[in-house]
Design brief:
Layout lengths: L16 E10 L5 E10 L3 E8 L9 E10 L5 E7 L10 E2 L1 E5 L5 E9 L7 E11 L4 E10 L27
Antiparallel strand pairs: 1-2, 3-4, 4-8, 5-6, 5-9, 7-8, 9-10
């Protein structure tokens, strides 16, 4: 009995998911033997979800974005960025901060908080997360959010010592 080892490289155009590898061996007499092995082709970096604290933020509201990412065994996380320019033009490449990483499973959680800029228009926009590992593999995922108009009303309840309404006092807003 002979044992042979071979390495198979999966091309960048391979379809992800289960597939079969077929090995055909022959001896010097030309006799053939065939064996199939089931394998699953996976992404080295998978952004499985992008979860904002709200999908309908209002201007000046803080929004925390959480990204759940899976790294293939043996791959090391590198960077995770969020393009939230639709909520704040300054946040086109906001770094997400690693909250946890399980070396055994490759599961990682990243978060960061941004403030919706008061000048952004209301309406739909997309948040995009791009994650990379140390060899340059990339994974992306998106989520739709809709900036809405504020329904807060100024009631003048918060006054300064001289009886003048104070716009920055939270008791003014209902």
């Amino acid at each position: 009995v002979a044992v042979y080892t071979n390495t198979v490289t999966v091309s960048g155009s391979a379809v992800f998911g289960p597939t079969n590898l077929t090995v055909v061996a022959s001896d010097t007499a030309g006799d053939l033997s065939t064996n199939s092995v089931a394998v699953t082709v996976t992404l080295p970096v998978l952004v499985s979800s992008v979860v904002p604290s709200t999908t309908t933020p209002v201007r000046t509201q803080n929004v925390t974005v959480t990204a759940n990412i899976s790294y293939a065994p043996g791959f090391t996380p590198n960077t995770v960025t969020l393009n939230a320019s639709g909520l704040n033009p300054a946040d086109s490449a906001l770094a997400l901060v690693q909250q946890s990483f399980n070396v055994g499973t490759g599961a990682a959680v990243y978060t960061n908080t941004l403030t919706v800029d008061p000048s952004v228009p209301t309406g739909a926009t997309t948040l995009t997360v791009v994650a990379s590992d140390t060899v340059g593999d990339l994974g992306t995922n998106t989520v739709a959010v809709t900036v809405t108009a504020s329904t807060q009303v100024w009631n003048g309840a918060g006054f300064t010592n001289n009886g003048v309404g104070n716009w920055s006092d939270n008791t003014n807003w209902v």
